[in-house]
Structure to design on (218 residues):
C-alpha cells in the first residue's frame, strides 16, 4: 500500500503523484481525461446544486422542474447542476444519457421513501468520500465534475484510452487513509509505475511508451 504511493503516475495538470482516486488529490483533475481539462466539482457547489433543485421543485410545483430536467439530462445535468455548472459523468469517463440519469436519480430518491435517513446519509457521503461521490453515485458508478472543461466528453462519447500509467480503479473500495503529504522519492518518475499500482504487466506499459516515441519519430 505504501509502496504504491511512491511510484504513482504523475498528474498531467499539476505534476503531483496520483493517489488511488479518480481525481488528483491536489488539483482535482479527472485522471481518465486524456485532454486533462475535466475537474472534480467542489463539494460546496454540489450542495448548492442540491439546494437549488429543492428550491426549483417548490417554485415550479415540480412540473417545470421535470420539463427542465428532460432538457438538460442528456448532458448529464439536472436543473440545479445546470445552473451551478456541474455535470455527471460515469466513472470510466463515458458521458451520461437520459436513461442513466434517471436511474441515478431514482437510486438517490426511492430508498429515502423506505428509510428516512437515506437522503441525508446518501448526500452527506460526498463530504468525506475521496471522489466526492454520494452513495447513489457509487451505485450508479458516476462522479460529478465541472461542466466547463468536460464538454468534450459529451462530444467524444468516451474519455478514450486511459493515459499511460493510470489504472481504472475498482467500482468501490472502502475509504483508505492515503498520505496527505508526498514523500520525496515519489517524484522519481513513472517508468516503473505499473509494477506496484497496476495489475497489468509492465511490458504493456513500456510498449505504450515506445509507441508514443514511434509516433514522434515517424
Ligand atoms: Zn493534479
Amino acid at each position: 500500500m505504501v509502496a504504491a504511493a511512491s511510484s504513482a503516475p504523475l498528474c498531467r495538470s499539476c505534476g503531483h503523484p496520483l493517489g488511488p482516486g479518480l481525481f488528483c488529490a491536489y488539483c482535482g483533475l479527472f485522471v481518465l481525461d486524456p485532454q486533462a481539462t475535466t475537474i472534480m466539482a467542489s463539494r460546496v457547489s454540489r450542495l448548492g446544486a442540491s439546494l437549488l433543485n429543492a428550491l426549483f421543485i417548490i417554485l415550479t410545483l415540480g412540473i417545470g422542474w421535470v420539463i427542465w430536467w428532460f432538457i438538460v439530462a442528456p448532458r448529464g445535468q439536472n436543473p440545479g447542476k445546470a445552473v451551478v455548472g456541474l455535470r455527471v459523468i460515469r466513472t470510466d469517463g463515458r458521458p451520461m444519457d437520459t436513461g442513466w440519469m434517471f436511474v441515478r436519480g431514482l437510486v438517490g430518491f426511492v430508498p429515502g421513501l423506505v428509510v428516512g435517513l437515506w437522503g441525508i446519509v446518501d448526500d452527506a457521503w460526498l463530504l468525506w468520500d475521496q471522489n466526492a461521490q454520494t452513495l447513489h453515485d457509487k451505485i450508479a458508478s458516476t462522479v460529478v465534475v465541472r461542466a466547463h472543461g468536460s464538454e468534450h466528453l459529451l462530444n467524444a462519447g468516451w474519455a478514450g484510452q486511459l493515459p499511460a500509467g493510470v489504472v481504472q480503479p475498482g467500482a468501490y473500495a472502502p475509504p483508505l487513509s492515503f498520505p496527505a503529504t508526498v514523500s520525496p522519492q515519489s517524484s522519481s518518475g513513472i517508468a516503473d509505475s505499473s509494477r506496484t499500482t497496476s495489475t497489468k504487466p509492465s511490458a504493456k506499459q513500456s510498449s505504450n511508451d515506445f509507441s508514443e516515441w514511434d509516433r514522434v519519430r515517424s
About this structure: Residues 11, 13-14, 16, 24, 26-27, 29 surround zinc ion (CB under 6 Å). The first helix runs from residue 2 to 6. The two ends are 40 Å apart (CA to CA).
